[in-house]
Design a protein that fits this description.
With 456 residues, this protein is α+β, with helices and mostly antiparallel strands. It has three domains: 2-92, GIY-YIG endonuclease (3-Layer(aba) Sandwich), CATH 3.40.1440.10; 100-209, no CATH class; 262-452, UvrC, RNAse H endonuclease domain (Nucleotidyltransferase, domain 5, 2-Layer Sandwich), CATH 3.30.420.340. It has 14 helices and 14 strands.
Length: 456
């Protein structure tokens, strides 16, 4: 028992799969966890477990874990291992409930996506059909499929009537196979059938653990659409890629997945080095010890707030975060608001200067930031007699997650990094943190106003 407690105490606080074995090495149970340490520890809390689980715990002689990048990956790995090994307690602890499976009927021209129980599995699966499972927790797998639908739209309608289903209007079923069924044969129908089958094949790849391949395919699709100036469609695909990242990685912050401090430092260093290398051809960025990001939050110009957040050596430095109530009272104008926040931030001579300033926005916001920064720094130089100061400024435009870089002679460079780039992950991480911090202050101001109005 003591050696098991020692093993448990050293388990990481990260997603993964845990495997319980008996004294002979036989697999007793396989489970998945969002946090391996917390989940496995729960089995040894006597008051919190039932008699069947107590029987399982009494037979455990060894614990193995396999860490994964996300809870999504852990869910897929758990299902695969249970399918391959068939541990007895995975059956006993189900309380006679049959586990859930996902069936993709790829043998059909317009495949169905079905969540079925073991008893509903066809006795003879067609060779092109794909079956995934068993998934132990129906609630989790249904939630997973709902999230995947935002990345890979698919249809759940059993009967296809020739009309678009309800989920088509929500963007969760596109193209809708029910509507395709009602079309006359021809080139348009053939194209939509191919598009829908591509969706289901990508869903198969995701459920097979090949999220990287799907991400690359979607990125290529987005770039082709953008090259054809079909920007609205490209933006939709970009949103799908972002949803996929949220499912498969949950966050860009490597702290969520790595328990070793040394490994964390390596990841942060890799992100910083990657960003520095990407910017080097266009900006002089000798170091990236301190990075700041500025964001604005408002509702049609009301309760407008600004914030800047700080990364020091890649880590969030919350003690250095600052927020501002926007003084601008004219019509909603994000560009002018950015200029105001930049000016007010750099008026504080007691605050350390950044090695890089990131603006949440495109060319307009970056230009406003540069103008405000140039004026404030030149005034500081004139008053203090200090040497000339140059602070590199870039923007991160949401539409295609492009890095906007100002160049000499009023020229601009738009840098689109690979979605797997550590440098892009760092800029997205600080941008998202700045947005969160500004939004929290904005909501606070709105709630205060609501309370004041309610009291009058």
């Amino acid at each position: 028992m003591e050696h098991l407690q020692t093993v448990i105490s050293h388990l990481p606080h990260s997603p993964g799969v845990y495997i319980y074995r008996d004294g002979s090495g036989q697999t007793l149970y396989i489970g998945k966890a969002k946090d391996l340490n917390k989940r496995v520890s729960q089995y040894w809390k006597r008051d919190a477990i039932g008699p069947k689980t107590k029987l399982l715990v009494s037979q455990i002689a060894g614990i193995e874990t396999i860490r994964t990048a996300s809870e999504f990956d852990a869910l897929l790995l758990e299902a695969k291992l249970i399918h391959d090994v068939l541990p007895k307690y995975n059956v006993i602890l189900k309380d006679d409930k049959s586990p859930l499976y996902i069936l993709l009927t790829l043998s059909e021209n317009l495949p169905h996506v079905k969540m079925i129980r073991r008893s509903d599995i066809p006795k003879k699966l067609r060779s092109r059909d794909a079956l995934f499972g068993p998934f132990q927790t129906a609630t989790v797998v249904r939630s997973m499929m709902r999230h995947l639908r935002h990345t890979i739209p698919y249809c759940t309608q059993k009967r296809r009537t020739g009309k678009p289903c309800f989920y088509t209007h929500l963007g969760l079923c596109h193209p809708c196979p029910s509507a395709i069924e009602g079309m006359q044969e021809g080139e348009a129908k053939t194209s939509l059938v191919h598009e829908y089958r591509t969706n289901i094949l990508r869903l198969k790849q995701l459920l097979s653990g090949k999220s990287g391949r799907v991400t690359r395919d979607l990125t290529k699709q987005m770039e082709k659409l953008a090259a054809k100036q079909r920007f609205e469609e490209a933006a939709t695909v970009r949103t799908h890629i972002q949803h996929l990242y949220r499912i498969c990685q949950k966050s860009y912050d490597p702290m969520l997945y790595v328990s070793s401090d040394a490994a964390v430092e390596d990841i942060y260093a890799n992100e910083l080095s990657s960003l520095q290398q990407q910017l080097a051809p266009y900006l002089a960025v000798p170091r990236l010890t301190r990075i700041e990001c500025i964001d604005i939050s408002n509702t049609q110009g009301k309760y407008a707030t600004g914030s800047f957040v700080v990364l020091t050596d890649g880590r969030s430095d919350t003690s250095a975060y600052k927020r501002f109530r926007i003084r601008l009272t004219s019509a909603p104008n994000d560009v002018a608001m950015i200029g105001e926040v930049v000016a007010r931030r750099f008026l504080h001579t007691e605050w350390q200067l950044p090695d890089l300033l990131i603006i949440d926005g495109g060319k307009g916001q970056v230009k406003a930031a540069l103008q405000a920064l140039s004026f404030i720094l030149s005034e500081r130089q004139r008053v203090e007699g200090s040497p000339s100061i140059t602070i590199p400024v870039i923007g991160l435009a949401k539409r295609f997650e492009e890095i906007i870089i100002p160049l000499p002679h009023n020229r601009w460079k738009t840098l689109r990094l690979d979605v797997t780039s550590p440098g892009l992950h760092l800029t997205q991480r600080i941008r998202d943190e700045a947005h969160r911090f500004a939004l929290s202050y904005h909501r606070l101001l709105r709630s205060r106003q609501f309370v004041t109005m309610s009291a009058t």
